[in-house]
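Q: Given only this backbone (239 positions), what sequence would you predict?
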């Protein structure tokens, strides 16, 4: 009798190879399905562009809102040295502050206030810090002008321009400042659209005052100028 011989080793090797291929293909299919369903599909639902855009828009809107609030008013600060009933004491205070700028005095009833000057908010903070560091007693009087109209805005800008001249004039090496440019700029301002504004007379008065300034403002003119601007700011705070 003849027997057929089978190569059992070869059959087992082939079967193992086929099973391995099947496992690899099945694993690849499962992994591919997972990646598509869970990662890719879920990621497609996230609108990064829209979210980023909305976030940027909100940030921009908030920034513009803050900017609008900051630009809607302007503060001027009169830095005060002291207030005295005795005029002699006020004069002594004025001499002391003369080391730091161009002081001026204002009278209220039976008292005299001594100020170092009037400044924009930023400059005032620097001056106050410097005085405090040098142990010079000081306080401040704040004037706020709402820039809610062209009239008020022009008043604020004219006062600011004048104060810039006075600040430059307070430098020790400066003897006088030309005012022609200030006059030309001031006279070029127009306010025809707000004839009923309650502060139009203040604006008119301020323009006329600037127009009458000397061609050169010397240090001895500073006190008169400061007092005038101080009174204008008081009027604006009451209007």
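A: Predicted residues:
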């Amino acid at each position: 009798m003849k027997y057929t011989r089978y190569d059992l080793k070869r059959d087992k090797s082939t079967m193992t190879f086929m099973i391995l291929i099947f496992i690899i293909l099945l694993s690849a299919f499962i992994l591919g399905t997972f990646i598509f369903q869970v990662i890719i599909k879920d990621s497609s639902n996230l609108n990064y562009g829209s979210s980023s855009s909305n976030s940027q828009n909100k940030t921009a809107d908030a920034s513009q809102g803050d900017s609008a609030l900051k630009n809607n008013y302007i503060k001027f600060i009169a830095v005060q040295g002291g207030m005295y009933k005795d005029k002699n004491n006020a004069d002594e205070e004025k001499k002391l502050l003369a080391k730091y700028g161009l002081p001026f005095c204002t009278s209220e009833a039976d008292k005299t206030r001594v100020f170092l000057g009037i400044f924009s908010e930023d400059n005032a903070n620097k001056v106050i810090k410097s005085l405090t560091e040098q142990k010079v007693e000081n306080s401040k009087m704040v004037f706020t002008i709402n820039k809610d109209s062209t009239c008020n805005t022009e008043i604020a800008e004219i006062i600011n321009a004048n104060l810039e001249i006075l600040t430059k004039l307070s430098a020790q090496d400066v003897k006088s400042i030309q005012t022609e440019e200030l006059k030309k700029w001031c006279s070029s301002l127009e306010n025809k659209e707000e004839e009923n504004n309650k502060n139009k007379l203040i604006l008119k008065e301020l323009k006329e005052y600037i127009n009458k300034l000397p061609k050169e403002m010397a240090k001895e003119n500073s006190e008169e100028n400061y007092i005038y601007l101080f009174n204008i700011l008081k009027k604006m705070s009451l209007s």
